[in-house]
Amino acid sequence: MKRPIFLFFIIILLAIVAVFFVYPKFPQPFNWLEKKLPWKLGLDLVGGTHLIYEIDMNQVAGVDRDSVISGLRDVIEKRVNLFGVAEPSIVTAKEGDNYRLIVELAGIKDVKEAVNQIGSTPLLEFYETSAVGTSTQFIPTNLTGRYLKGSQIDFDQTTGAPQIALQFNDEGAKIFEEITGRNVDKLVCVSIDRQINDNDCATVQEKISGGRAQITGRFTPEEAKRIVSRFNAGALPAPINLISQQLVGASLGQESLKKAIYGGLIGTLAVMVFMIIYYRTRGIFASLALLIYTALTLAILKLFSATMTLSGIAGFILSIGMAVDANILIFERTKEEIKKGLTKISAIEEGFKRAWPSIRDSNVSTIITSLILYFFTTSFVKGFALTLLIGVLVSMFSAITITRTMMRVFVKK
Amino acid sequence: MNLIKYRYIFFFISTVLTIASIAAVFIYGLKPGIDFTGGTLWQISATQIDINEIKDFFEQNLNVKNATIYPEAESQSYLIKLGHISEEEHQSYLATLNYKFGQIEEMRYEAIGPAIGKELKGKAVWAIILVILGISLYVAYAFRKVSYPVKSWKYGIITLITLFHDVIVSVGALALLGWKFGVELDTKFIVALLVIIGFSVHDTIVVFDRIRENLLLDRGRKDLKEIINDSVRQTFARSVNTSLTLVLTLLALFFYGPLTLKYFVLLIMTGTIIGTYSSIFIASPSLLFFRNK
Predict the structure, then answer these.
(1) B39-112 adopts what CATH topology?
(2) Which residue of A has its CA nearest to B247?
(3) N or C terminus: fewer CB in 10 A for chain B?
């Protein structure tokens, strides 16, 4: 049998590349690589806040919902960028009939302020009125903040009081024209965050084209300024409700990360020591294969820019414990073949060949479990399932190909 | 090692374990976690504060009656479990705590609304159903061949019985942990359970694979008892060593890993050990009961 020296060097080269890719610590002048290849770490490891909002779609027609959602996402993104969070993640999701907005803010200190800013982004609505007896009834119109193009602060020419000038986009201008058209001599009101003050209502004199409106009267200059800047970031096209919140302090996150890596290292070391004590020379090959396995799996996870969470690291460490399973199957089989009277070399080859069906079968159930976990559950579980799945798949390759190549190269005839 | 000779001892042990586990679930119950019921989990660092002070504070100053408070010695903090509270309440509690005890650090805060809880519960139930279904289909597929002297579907049934045995004992262990340390039935535990299911099955399959291989080799020459004994002996080292390497990594995580994963790891470890035990000592001897007469 030829010794596959070429393949062996390729594996070693691959492993070295993987190690530097996973842990790019270089001396000057190459240390910039470290910044170019950062790990994506989950909130539970760097500290941060995970917020889930329910979007109230009661007032939004079915066909408009998609545009409302994307508008909402954009608005909140601008809002979040205002308080300078590195790489915020804002995604929308549909759960049954409910629409959700999920906001992840890493490493933020003042969560209270963040939650306030996101939630209270002003909700702008226009109402028609009709008199019912002596009281006034407010009827919401379909003109809302999502048709807003921009706003600016103005001051009343005579009183000098601050007011907010609104400019609608084309669609909004048309709706505003319709609303004012059918409400001549009636009150039309504008509300911010569902509050209507008397001086937010005005009697329409005539149909207004061009899409300009004003909110007057009730602001201090500072208030007006704040509201304008929020409007320009965008008013919320639909109300949102905070229904779930998770916060992990930065120190707990870093502590968790440190401990998870430490625990993983000790676990790997323990497995290697056990393999070497029990299987001697073959154990050394299995241990080396395990190290290469670790580097390759981490490199693959990083290549796909998978976010590493605490549960993800747990899944990976679990896969380290399972990775040598294939080697154990092969070595036990090899022992039996030696007992049957085969030479060492052919016993090893036979062991690899005969153990394959068992290796495949024993990994299938873990693969089934992790696939189902990945596709049918939530984020805590997804991270775990992904690393476990990738780990098991890589281990099937590494325990067989890598160990066999090393043994073919090094075992004496 | 003559496994078959002592099989009744193992059956007895497993029966006792199973009954004890079911009893533990009935006596101590399973506490559903906040991710299934909705609620609040709050962890605050508090180096100088006595637990009773915190308890009194929540009951009297904040007028929260249903708070459960556990100290977590290792990180010098307290875990506080409350019903679902709003963000305003959270901020006002935090401000009051800060005022009373000086600057405390908020290590973790999870507030899960009832709607999300219901949803997570639904997803967990689905995941369990799908995993059991998927694994059963796989077991049926794995044992589609070889039917003498044990019908192939019977291997499948035994695999599933040992699977339930492992699951019941693991749930019993959770009930005990819940009673002793307040461990809850939450998403993490469901994941642990599903990992245990996968592991339990693959261990059993490897032993059964060997039995079937030997049945083909030794057909007519040895009786079933002898073949089972041989097969278990041949796969024994593999079964034990595989679990052992997994247990080694789990032990490392349990002792040195992050606190939040401690019980998750402990449960997977329990399931792994039970799964290995049952595939060696329960699954294989059970074949004798199912032998074609």
Answers:
(1) Alpha-Beta Plaits (3.30.70)
(2) A321
(3) C
